[in-house]
Amino acid sequence: MHMSTTDVLLVIFIGVAAVSLLGQLLVLLGLARRVGAMSKAITPLLPPLELGAKALPQVVAEARGLLNETRPQIQAVVANVAEISTLARDQVRRADQLATEFAERLELQMVRVDEVLATALASVEQVTTTVRESVLQPVRDVNALVQGVRTGVDFFFRRRASPPARPAYQDEEMFI
Asked: What pLDDT, on a 0 to 100 scale, did the predictor assign at position 93?
């Protein structure tokens, strides 16, 4: 019995196919075993999960009800926060304008005060000079005249020599 090449190839192909089917069978048996183990592990978790799933519609309904109840309040809070934000921004702008205006007015008033003080100091200086010239000078003149009369009276009544010489400026005042 002599086999042809085609027959040999057909036998090899059938052998490879049988090995591959055997490998697939082993893989499927391993998967079945794993799925069984997972099923045993998940089975105790199913009753609480089912209870949770049954309660879920009620929880969703309660959440919707709560949301519907609080929606107007939340909208009012959001509107109030927006209004407060707008008012605060407006107040900050007004305060900034007021501070700027106050600073400008204060600066203008400081310039005016400086000018008034400069004018007042100039007036005080002028008054001091005028007082010195109009009051003190005549007082010095009168003092010099009194000194001269006193010296003359002393000389006339006592017939003495005049007292020792005084500083030159007093003599000059008497001369004037």
From this structure: 94
